[in-house]
């Protein structure tokens, strides 16, 4: 009886594993064709809410904007947009921190990279790549580079950037004491409302498998 039960368990387990192997690839295949509408197109984006760079202390911008181009692409991951200009704060509304006003000088282009698409929600998951910037907060000056996890929602046109610790690194720092060092792991969070340049049209990104 024990031998029969053992054989049954082995057969059942093998059957379950085979079923899982058959089902998993179909549900886990990532998108490889990215259709941007319209394509190619220029885009502009403005912040929706505060933009916050945290490098042990928060540095908050109430004003930020970006612009660049978007286009359909193939591959995974695939760059679906190039951010050719981005600014943080203005002379009348500077970014702030406990160290003083914050000035950020980006080195562009940055890239919006797509990795996954949820057809039921219209949300593309990916990251902003090639992030590079020189940040000055009072006497503290440091350079940041890396990437930042992000999502794009077709219904709202919101590019939501929410990096996790370790995606961005400080490559150099001076005048910051122990507040910001090369061991610091900054995070970058904020939402941008994206429109086709000069219009109120929200561009769409759709991922599929041909």
Can you give a write-up of this model?
The chain has 210 residues and is mostly beta strands. The chain folds into two domains: 30 residues; 176 residues. It has one helix and 15 strands. The strands form two sheets. Strands 2-5-7-9-10-11-12-14 form an eight-stranded antiparallel beta barrel. Strands 6-1-15 form a three-stranded antiparallel sheet, with no helix packed on it. Strand 3 and strand 4 form a beta hairpin. The N terminus is likely disordered.
Describe the protein's topology.
Blueprint: H1 2-28, E1 33-37, E2 41-47, E3 51-55, E4 57-61, E5 64-70, E6 73-74, E7 78-88, E8 102-106, E9 110-118, E10 123-137, E11 140-153, E12 158-162, E13 168-174, E14 187-196, E15 204-208
Antiparallel strand pairs: 1-6, 1-15, 2-5, 2-14, 3-4, 3-14, 5-7, 7-9, 8-10, 9-10, 10-11, 11-12, 11-13, 12-14
């Amino acid at each position: 009886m024990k031998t029969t039960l053992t054989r049954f368990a082995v057969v059942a387990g093998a059957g379950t594993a085979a079923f899982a192997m058959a089902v998993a690839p179909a549900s886990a295949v990532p998108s490889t064709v990215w259709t941007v509408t319209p394509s190619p197109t220029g885009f502009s984006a403005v912040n929706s809410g505060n933009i916050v760079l945290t490098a042990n202390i928060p540095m908050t911008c109430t004003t930020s904007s970006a612009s660049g181009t978007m286009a359909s692409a193939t591959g995974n991951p695939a760059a679906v947009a190039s951010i050719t200009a981005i600014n943080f704060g203005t002379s009348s509304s500077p970014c702030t921190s406990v160290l003083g006003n914050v000035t950020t000088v980006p080195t562009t282009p940055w890239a919006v990279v797509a990795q996954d698409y949820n057809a039921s929600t219209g949300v593309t998951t990916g990251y902003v790549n090639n992030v590079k910037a020189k940040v000055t907060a009072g006497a503290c000056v440091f350079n940041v580079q890396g990437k930042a996890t992000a999502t794009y929602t077709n219904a709202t046109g919101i590019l939501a950037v929410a990096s996790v610790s370790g995606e961005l690194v400080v490559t150099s720092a001076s005048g910051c004491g122990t507040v910001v060092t090369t061991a610091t792991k900054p995070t970058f969070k904020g939402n941008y409302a994206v429109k086709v340049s000069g219009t109120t049209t929200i561009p769409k990104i759709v991922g599929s498998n041909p």
